[in-house]
Design a protein that fits this description.
The chain is 38% helix and 27% strand. The protein is of the alpha+beta class and 335 residues long. It has two domains: 9-136 and 316-331, ATPase, nucleotide binding domain (Nucleotidyltransferase, domain 5); 147-308, ATPase, nucleotide binding domain (Nucleotidyltransferase, domain 5), CATH 3.30.420.40. The strands form five sheets. The protein has a five-stranded mixed β-sheet, with helices on both faces. Helix 5 packs antiparallel against helix 7 (244-268) and helix 7 packs across helix 9. It is flat, with a radius of gyration of 21 Å. The protein starts with 8 loop residues before the first strand and ends with a helix.
Length: 335
């Protein structure tokens, strides 16, 4: 039995850390980590998404669990194609009609990187592929009316990239994209724990620390968490207690890189639009913006009110979904 008829429209937030799929008329139908486990010897895909994520750092020699996207762009084309195919089949079933797909991309990607995304989606079974810039999708998803002639600033912090853009009249006026986001926070935590406690930890432990006690602004009450890692002196497992004040030390450097990027975009913003932004404030979206105190830090350094969008993790996917409604008008000028 066919699940869908002709003209199925799908929006995909192809994130470095998470893939979120939106189907027109149904909303968000899939949210899975963008991790794929592949058998090195045969090239077969063994697991995709949550199941593959559980294998990260725990696989035997012939199985490799990888993230096929790095810093917001495709780093392993073949694996990305297989991952997309898996997710498209999972949400669309074995329909004979190929879906039209809209995919989010960081604002500063090259033509080659754009082509890689389009080709991967076409190979994975799309009938037609449209691209939308992440900050624009995030703004639509956050409920901002981007068609009006007034400035809105969006800071979208994902897993691999942070996109900062000033949007007016449906397009981005000034934008920048930097490769500092959720994954970079995890890297800094791993380095910090190694330097301060002489313990090696994996990315999953680092992410748990970031989510549970991570902060970039002093907390009123110091939180703590026990973690296990390998003592680099003895080579044996060891448990240590980490405090949120230590997380602040570990994370303040990458957080300030994001603040500096916002600052440089504000400097290049035309005066009229800058006035609009100081009136309305800055909208933060993406999973990375949920690090405790990031909104306070940005507000303190810019002097502009900062708001975290509702359901910030799904903002980009929701915006892509809303943009699907205009696909028929886009269809004429698509690639």
């Amino acid at each position: 039995m066919l699940k869908f008829g002709f003209g199925q429209d799908v929006g995909i937030d192809l994130g470095t850390a998470t893939v979120i799929v939106y189907i027109k008329g149904k909303g968000v139908v899939l949210r899975e980590p963008s991790v794929v486990a592949v058998d090195r010897n045969t090239g077969d895909v063994l697991a995709v998404g949550g199941e593959a994520r559980r294998m990260l750092g725990r696989t035997p020699g012939n199985i490799v669990a990888t993230r096929p996207l790095k810093d917001g762009v495709i780093s392993d084309y073949t694996v990305t194609e297989k991952m997309l195919k898996h997710f498209i089949e999972k949400v669309c079933g074995k329909s004979i009609f190929a879906p039209r797909i809209m995919i989010c991309i960081p604002s500063q990607v090259t033509e080659v990187e754009k082509k890689a995304v389009i080709d991967a989606a076409m190979q994975a079974g799309a009938r037609k592929v449209f691209l939308i810039e992440e900050p624009i999708a995030a703004a639509i998803g956050a409920g901002i009316d981007i068609a009006k002639p007034c400035g809105n600033m969006v800071v979208d912090i994902g897993g691999g990239t942070t996109d900062v853009a000033v949007i007016s009249l449906g397009g981005s006026v000034v934008s920048t994209s930097l490769k500092v986001a959720g994954d970079k926070f995890d890297e800094y935590i791993v380095k910090y724990i190694k330097r301060k406690h002489n313990i090696a930890i994996g990315e999953r432990t680092a992410e748990d620390l970031k989510v549970n006690i991570g902060c970039v602004y002093p907390k009123i009450q110091d939180a703590e968490m026990d973690i296990r890692g390998r003592d680099l002196g003895t080579g044996l497992p060891k448990t240590v207690t980490i405090h949120s004040s230590e997380m602040l030390e570990a994370l303040i450097e990458p957080a300030m890189m994001i603040v500096d990027a916002v600052h440089s975009v504000l400097e290049k913003t035309p005066p009229e639009l800058a006035a609009d932004i100081s009136d309305k404030g800055i909208y933060m979206t993406g999973g990375g913006c949920l690090v405790d105190g990031l909104d306070k830090l940005l507000q303190e350094k810019t002097g502009i009110n900062v708001m975290i969008a509702q359901d910030s993790v799904s903002c980009v996917a929701l915006g892509t979904g809303k943009a699907l409604d205009n696909l028929d008008t886009l269809d004429g000028k698509s690639k």
